[in-house]
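hey m, so remember when u said the tokens were messed up on ur end? i reran from scratch. heres the input so u can diff it against urs
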Amino acid sequence: MAAPSLVLDASTGAPLHAQLAEALRGAILAGRLAPGTRLSSTRALAEQLDVSRNTVLNAFARLLAEGYLVGHTGSGTYVARELPERLLAVRHAPAAPTPARHVDPRALSKRGAAVASVPPLAAPAEGMAPGRMAFRMGVPALDAFPSELWGRLLHNRWQRSWRDLLSHIPAAGHLPLRRAVADYLATARGVRCVPEQVLIVNGTQQALSLTAQVLLDVGDAAWVEDPGYSPAHGALIAAGATRVPVPVDAEGLDVEAGLRLAPHARLAIVTPAHQFPLGVVMSERRRRALLAWAAREEAWVLEDDYDSEFRYVGRPPPALQGLTAEARVLYTGTFSKVLSPALRLGYLVVPESLVDAFSTARVFVDRHSASLEQAVLTDFITQGHFSRHVRRMRVLYAARQEALVEAARRELRGLVDVSPLHTGMHLVGWLPEGVDDRAASAKAAQAGLQAFALSAFQLQGRPRGALLLGYACVPEEELAEGVSRLARALR
């Protein structure tokens, strides 16, 4: 053939074989090399371009592998008659009218319609900074994420074991990570478990869903804190369970109230170390009463320990799961609130008698969590980086909480009452009696702030209005600006 005009430039730094492959590909797609055209031999093309024959061989090998060229033994190399673009793209049908967004109620099951009616926690609107939006909750300090270190660990892990990481792993998760999590929980939270009891999941929500699916039958009652973590309700509804809202006071979940409302419930979902959203710690008396109820009724407790790493005064209370050897407790935590919500890795510790059932159920959800992220996280923990990161974040979050409290005292007097807490990543800002917290939340949203209304997490009753103010992901100067904007919005 007469080769099309091909220009290679060694000064660009790009490999010559890659330049040649791209030039030939461009000529094929532009039609300068028609389908079925026989190419010059590699030796002749190398002489024409004044490059080594290996350069041409590598370029041809790439285009053969991608389907732009075909080789015929004893005949030569030809432009493919069917190009990859035609084989990978569908023929576009005439544009149809855009269907209405209305969903026919008959298209959903009753359970599906109920799940779809549960409002999820709102994410920032498109175009708004996702990580530093005052006063967004549940997001760690992404500006303090150890990105360079994580990148090195990622690179090193890929270089060492990429072949293994491209295959399936056990549904329960990467065993070295399960060992690391078990060791960490035993030391930091007093959890009693062996690595085989740890399941790696895609965050707390998947742990909630698996628990509801495996342990509850349709119609079974489940205690939920009121106010409490609303995404848990979606998991219960999807399992066909009946939610029983149990009030929360200064001692945490009111176990006596739960006994009056549904003494034979099958499950209780609680946040004892730092109740969401009020921030109270469950008392020792309530903890013992909850465990006694579970043992007596052969019920289960799901302990959501979502942000216990961040305690600023004194030692944290030990996990419910570790209080007695026979505790009927499943324990869940997440790395999303410690490192990044994009990581989507958490853990669920189940009693030994449930390990096989949960591992099997996990297969039918999504097989397993991403292998590469699990391997990198294992290195991050076992090399000591995780504990150092948590220590740094405790100092940072304590300073940010103090900055929020001080700014609120200066600018929100008479509008929002904000007091410090010893733990967590958000504070409760109490509104004056009679003020509608949903209206206040809407005013904050108009000012570009995300301050959830406390009543949005309440199933029964209308408590005193309050706004939930996250501080972990927002630098101190931006917290001060956020408080100023909130004050203007509420006035």
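this time it looks ok to me. The chain has 16 helices and 14 strands. if urs says something different then somethings off w ur setup not the seq
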